[in-house]
Amino acid sequence: MRSILRAEALSRVFGSGAGEVHALNGVDLAVASGELLVVRGPSGSGKTTLLNLLGGLDRPTSGSVWLGEAEVTAMREREVLATRQRRIGYVFQSFGLVPVLSAAENVEVPLRLRRVAPAERAERVRAALEAVGLGEHAEQRPYELSGGQQQRVGIARALVAEPEVLIADEPTGQLDSATAAVVMDLIRDVVHARGVAAVVSTHDPILMERADRVVELHDGRLAAGG
Ligand SMILES: Nc1ncnc2c1ncn2[C@@H]1O[C@H](COP(=O)(O)OP(=O)(O)OP(=O)(O)O)[C@@H](O)[C@H]1O
């Protein structure tokens, strides 16, 4: 399998002097297109730090992140921003939906950022909401939807621009376990169907069952076997 997303010797230190925190220590990782990788580990082990670095939301203290042939960590900020908009989708624990926008308008945001023409935007938003089973809920605002429905809107938004990589930090952390299982099934199915490389962090064993591969972080290091 071709690995589209790679991390080499990735380290991240927060703070300095006596207050220094080594959040991540020399992590090597590769994720293939169509692969669902789950990152597990205790609270504070570095999961969010790793996902933020892989998604170009933060820069490492040392080491590199590669997206295909492009070294994201060598890019200027403008180029990182463009890469995030064109090539990476994000799903957040707290959904991150804009409350005054309808489900459809929320999903439309990444297409607006990419200056997709209005007619094409409408069609792609419709298809994305259909794909997550929310075709009938396009005009509803987030507060009119259940937590599971809101996260399905979040998934539709993350995937509407057809990214190569999906980064999801505790995507089911605010959902009950039955809803979490449905949302994780959806993530797994779209990742496999569309050939997206996905990195998902979780504490939840139900979600780990859906992974193609699980790696474990301890004190900022990948445990043996990862
Ligand atoms: N911006 C920051 N400034 C200082 N320390 C930080 C910062 N972000 C994270 N840390 C520290 O880095 C370590 C790893 O944090 P991180 O959030 O990556 O862990 P996590 O595995 O995602 O935890 P959780 O499961 O609780 O979300 C922790 O010790 C944390 O306190």
UniProtKB/TrEMBL annotation:
Residues 5-226 form the ABC transporter domain. Keywords: ATP-binding, Nucleotide-binding, Transport. Transmembrane segments: none annotated. InterPro entries: AAA+_ATPase, ABC_transporter-like_ATP-bd, ABC_transporter-like_CS, ABC_transpr_LolD-like, MacB-like_ATP-bd, P-loop_NTPase. Gene3D superfamilies: P-loop containing nucleotide triphosphate hydrolases. GO terms for molecular function: ATP binding. SMART domains: AAA. PANTHER family: ABC TRANSPORTER RELATED, IMPORT ATP-BINDING PROTEIN. This is ABC transporter ATP-binding protein. It comes from Myceligenerans pegani.
